[in-house]
Backbone:
């Protein structure tokens, strides 16, 4: 084995991000590393590249134990990394980027001609023949990515880590990058490949290791492995364990909102969606499948380029969040701490924020009215706090989430998008939020619920839409909503699609 | 075409156009006398702008240089008045002092991860205060060596004088260009300006580069102070107030991106000369208020900022 990891452990306060993980990577193989959010993939990679110092275990490269303490040191040892966002400088030329730190010099000055010809020779090995004197930023992301790979290989040359290298590439560009990666594999490099795209994993990888909750679930050759088995291992549930809880009988309410052929190039493939009053539509899919992107598109954060939205009264303008709010939409984003709350403001201020923004700042809501609203929602949603003036940052995650909900409810929306509303919330509050969702829909509010927890979707959603590789691939309704069916659809097997 | 060089071409085009306009009105503008004076009058600004260019390329700013120039003048004048040291010895001591001063600011900026703006603002007050401390009054410099420096020039055809300080400025620009474009240090400066995080991952020694950048700016400010003292023949603690901002303006008009990572030394020279040209034109005209210089420079600056924003948009769309 070229690279061997034994009992790698990394502890953060409160969690074991990596727990006794073993991993072997051979020269001349592409080894895919898979896992959901929080599985420990990025922690593992950061331990390899020296960004994190491990708390336990050994890493051996070519039989010798290594202990990289910085990315630079890891590079010198032979471990190079290429990230999703190209980690080169767009304002330098291709040659400068490729040769930085290794420029040929004459009399102490950089030998421009020598640098150019070396850069050209290097890129020729990757099938690139481009003007190396142009800024890197003037080339497509795919070419930048290949230059980044070339640089990593030139400097390190033993192990190449590709961390979501294709996330911002289109299909043709992905093929181009993959050709380069295959060429490197055939030259005997060991390649670690991290991707959310299962198709790409099956396309490129020779072996696959799956992590879940900081532990290694399995390492196996990809040949003979089914998608279903892979998804099962990632999500951590065997089918027979699943007890499909009966979904509440979906009444055939008339559709309130129609989205026709709505999509955005490179983000979400066009799809149709109708939402009835009081309906909960769930969005399921692996990380990176386009769930959050769908929500952001509907709410006008990254507006749709194709398709139309309309309600009973006519077309809706969803080109930016203000327009979406005016249309009666609400959106509680996934990252509550940065996108959802203003931590230093009080609960009251956080709750009235949206309402006040809609009224315009010139017409402040009277303080008495603010107090009434805040107290009202604190009681209604059972927000546990010593009072409405407490800074919201001091509340627990579940209570913060309730306050964010209260902010939207105060605006009386008809369609609310909840992106992972129960992430980072303890079990008790989790159940409460789900109950709350039910009572809201009983009053006629429609919801779009994004969740990676299948049980949650099964428990709450009337209908589940499954996304894979940024496209809507399946829709499950009523009794068909079950964890196994969703999982089949995510994996792209079975008859669900 | 390389979009990075577009601002430079724009700068040169504006300079040539402005010169042509001035020439059509006052044919004497093209004489070697005017050109010689343009270089001499703006020598101190050109030198300090070379240091500023490197600082801005690295993504920083140096507000201390105007005060450092004034301090340098007073330091030299007082040292020559009160000690028997030869001016060259005083120059050496001064350059060492301003270089260390710059390096110190760079060290603070890097180690404390503080904004360059605030650290160099402190440096600005410090240097100005130190100048007052040495002397509140203007101190004339009467050393015979100074007379030698002031009278050193080459008489160009057409009776224009190419002075020592003018030539020094051109040499410094050439030196700056070599440092910025042909050394690993220079590439590191561009890399830092392009993105500090990425630059670190690529192996740029961030701390050393930052210290060196501000040390270089300090050295240039000291050199500029020497040139300014030769130019004015005195040291005065109230001199060159706001010169740091004029230098920044020259750098930006010269096509350097204020956020760092993109620009050229030669552009800065053209920027300095463009500003000098406007001044010269107003002198030639005679009826215009000298405040028109500021107004035109303000408009030029605005134009360049818009141009750079436009180019940025263009390059992003091009992908």
Residues:
């Amino acid at each position: 084995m070229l690279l061997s990891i034994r009992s790698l452990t990394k502890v953060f306060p409160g969690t074991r991000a990596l727990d006794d993980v073993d991993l072997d990577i051979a020269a001349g193989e592409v080894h895919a590393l898979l896992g959901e959010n929080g599985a420990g993939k990025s922690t593992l990679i950061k331990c390899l590249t020296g960004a994190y110092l491990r708390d336990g275990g050994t890493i051996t490269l070519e039989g010798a134990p290594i202990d990289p303490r910085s990315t630079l040191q890891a590079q010198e040892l032979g471990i190079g990394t290429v990230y999703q966002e190209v980690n080169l400088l767009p304002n330098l030329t291709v040659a400068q980027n490729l040769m930085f730190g290794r420029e040929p010099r004459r009399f102490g000055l950089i030998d421009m001609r020598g640098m150019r010809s070396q850069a050209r020779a290097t890129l020729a090995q990757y099938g690139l023949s481009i003007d190396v004197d142009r800024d890197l930023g003037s080339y497509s992301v795919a070419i930048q990515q290949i230059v980044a790979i070339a640089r990593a290989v030139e400097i390190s040359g033993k192990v190449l880590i590709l961390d979501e290298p294709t996330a911002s590439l289109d299909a043709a560009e992905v093929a181009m990058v993959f050709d380069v990666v295959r060429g490197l594999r055939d030259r005997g490099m060991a390649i670690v490949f991290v991707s959310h795209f299962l198709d790409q994993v099956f396309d490129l990888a020779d072996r696959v290791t799956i992590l879940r909750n900081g532990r290694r679930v399995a390492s196996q050759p990809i040949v003979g492995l089914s998608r279903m088995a892979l998804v099962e291992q990632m999500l951590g549930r065997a089918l027979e364990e699943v007890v499909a809880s009966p979904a509440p009988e979906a009444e055939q309410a008339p559709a309130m909102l129609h989205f026709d052929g709505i999509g955005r190039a490179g983000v979400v493939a066009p799809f149709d969606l109708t939402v009835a009053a009081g309906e909960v539509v769930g969005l399921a899919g692996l990380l990176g499948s386009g769930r959050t992107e769908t929500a952001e598109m509907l709410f006008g954060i990254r507006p749709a380029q194709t398709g139309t939205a309309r309600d009973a009264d006519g077309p809706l303008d969803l080109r930016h969040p203000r327009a979406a709010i005016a249309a009666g939409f609400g959106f509680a984003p996934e990252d509550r701490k940065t996108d959802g709350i203003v931590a230093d403001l009080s609960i009251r201020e956080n709750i009235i924020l949206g309402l006040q923004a809609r009224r315009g700042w010139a017409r402040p809501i009277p303080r008495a009215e603010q107090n009434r609203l805040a107290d009202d929602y604190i009681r209604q949603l059972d927000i546990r706090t010593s009072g409405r003036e407490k800074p919201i940052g001091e509340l627990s995650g579940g209570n913060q989430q309730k306050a964010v909900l209260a902010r939207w409810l105060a605006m009386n929306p008809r369609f609310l998008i909840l992106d992972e509303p129960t992430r980072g919330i303890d079990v008790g509050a989790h159940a409460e939020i789900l109950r709350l969702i039910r009572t809201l829909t009983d009053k006629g509010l429609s919801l779009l619920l994004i969740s990676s927890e299948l049980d949650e979707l099964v428990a709450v959603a009337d209908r589940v839409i499954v996304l894979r590789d940024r496209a809507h691939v399946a829709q499950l309704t009523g009794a068909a909503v079950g964890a196994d069916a969703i999982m089949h659809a995510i994996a792209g097997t079975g008859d669900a699609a | 075409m390389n979009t990075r060089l577009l601002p430079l071409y724009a700068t040169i085009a504006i300079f040539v156009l402005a010169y042509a306009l001035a020439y059509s009105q006052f044919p004497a503008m093209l004489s070697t006398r005017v050109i010689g004076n343009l270089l001499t009058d703006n020598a101190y600004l050109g030198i300090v702008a070379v240091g500023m260019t490197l600082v801005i390329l690295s993504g920083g700013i140096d507000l201390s240089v105007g005060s450092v120039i004034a301090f340098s003048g007073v330091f030299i004048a007082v040292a020559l008045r009160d000690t028997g040291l030869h001016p060259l010895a005083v120059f050496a001591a001064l350059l060492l002092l301003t270089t260390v001063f710059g390096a110190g600011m760079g060290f603070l900026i890097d180690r404390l991860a503080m904004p360059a703006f605030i650290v160099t603002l402190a440096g600005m007050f410090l240097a100005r205060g130190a100048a007052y401390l040495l002397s509140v009054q203007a101190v004339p410099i009467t050393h015979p060596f100074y007379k030698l420096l002031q009278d050193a020039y080459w008489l160009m055809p057409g009776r224009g004088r190419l002075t020592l300080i003018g030539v020094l400025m051109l040499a410094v620009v050439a030196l700056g260009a070599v440092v910025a474009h042909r050394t690993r240090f220079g590439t590191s400066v561009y890399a830092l300006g392009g993105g500090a995080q990425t630059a670190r991952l690529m192996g740029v020694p961030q701390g050393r580069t930052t210290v060196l950048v501000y040390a270089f700016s300090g050295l240039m400010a000291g050199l500029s102070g020497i040139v300014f003292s030769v130019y004015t023949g005195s040291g005065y603690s109230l001199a060159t107030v706001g010169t740091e901002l004029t230098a920044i303006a020259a750098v930006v008009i010269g096509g350097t991106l204020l956020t760092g990572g993109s620009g050229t030394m030669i552009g800065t020279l053209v920027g300095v000369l463009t500003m000098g040209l406007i001044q010269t034109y107003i002198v030639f005209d005679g009826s215009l208020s000298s405040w028109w210089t500021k107004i035109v420079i303000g408009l030029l600056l605005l134009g360049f900022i818009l141009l750079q924003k436009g180019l940025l948009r263009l390059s992003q769309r091009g992908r």
Q: What stands out?
A: The radius of gyration of chain B is 20 Å.
